[in-house]
Amino acid sequence: MNASRPDRAAELDADLVDMMNAVFADYRAAHPPTAPIRRDTDLWAGLDRLGLVRLTGSEQSGGSGASWYAAAELIAAAARNAVRVPLAEHDLLACWLLEKVGAPIALTARTVCVFDETGTATAVPWASTAERIVVIWRHDDTQLLADVDCADLRIIPGSNLIGEPRDTVSADTAALAGTPVRAELVAQLHLKAALVRSIQVCAALDKILELAVEHASARTQFGRPLSRFQAVQQLIADIAAEAALARAATEAALSAAVRSDWAGPNVTFAVAVARSCAGHAASVAVRNAHQVLGAIGTTVEHRLHEYTRAALAWRSEFGSVHHWDEQVTRAALAAGADGLWRLIAD
């Protein structure tokens, strides 16, 4: 994400942003990627000491009291450096819900999931490496929430395209003691999770663009740099355009959400547009970048795949590209000719 916009700049401390980037860059330099990916407890402890694990939590509950703008920079910094860590799932989703329902929040790593009618949730991020999971389920006409120790849940490990834990979690919900949670909070949970993935995709796209430009500038073919060939220039220009569109849509959605505390009439539409743009941008960026880099871009040693596979994995989580395309279409049709501009501009 880019902190140059006035509303974002007013919310962010430049030294904090620099510190976030430095922490993840230093960690990545000392820790090459491994598979399968697990939560690094030493990194987690270090981030906790810096106040980054509960960055947006209230100070009364042990958080740092920062804004979603700061959280977006933190998430993007991790994604840019290919450091896989469940900061968003813990802080922005699980602990946020606990704070909203007035539940105690101990210093322990969490994620969140919503059970279906059988008491099962699939592709739950980081469940197998968490210590507790905030679970939501429906009982009659009420939605209930519980903060459950992982030892009391059934967890079947799985992973996404880049090896991040995406696990199946199940429980006997009748045996859980739940706290009622408002439907609007559950709706906000889905939107927040979706926007988190859009922020991560945008960070990956920016890195893909950087690697493509770097390669085209350094490599020569037929006696001149690749960047001098018109076809290569066009491929890179398309990556840049798509990445910029995705970033603009994502920042617009983030601004709309922050301004209205996630309750504005156009937040759902803005998040849907962000996810749609980011999803389609990933297709172009991945295809074009691998064309620019050729065979070297497909090797394990080159870092390109760390971002192209990540972009493809994240764009399909918390709603597919097709799902978000449909949401944009339905909202536009419902607004009609008279209301469409207001829907876009508000």
From TrEMBL:
PANTHER family: ACYL-COA DEHYDROGENASE, ACYL-COA DEHYDROGENASE FADE28. One of its GO terms (molecular function) is acyl-CoA dehydrogenase activity. Belongs to the acyl-CoA dehydrogenase family. Its cofactor is FAD. The keyword Manganese does not apply. Pfam families: Acyl-CoA_dh_1 (PF00441). Gene3D superfamilies: Acyl-CoA dehydrogenase/oxidase, N-terminal domain (1.10.540.10), Butyryl-CoA Dehydrogenase, subunit A, domain 3 (1.20.140.10). SUPFAM superfamilies: Acyl-CoA dehydrogenase C-terminal domain-like, Acyl-CoA dehydrogenase NM domain-like. It comes from Mycolicibacter algericus (Mycobacterium algericum). Residues 199-319 form the Acyl-CoA dehydrogenase/oxidase C-terminal domain. The lineage of its organism: Bacteria, Bacillati, Actinomycetota, Actinomycetes, Mycobacteriales. Keywords: FAD, Flavoprotein, Oxidoreductase. This is Acyl-CoA dehydrogenase.
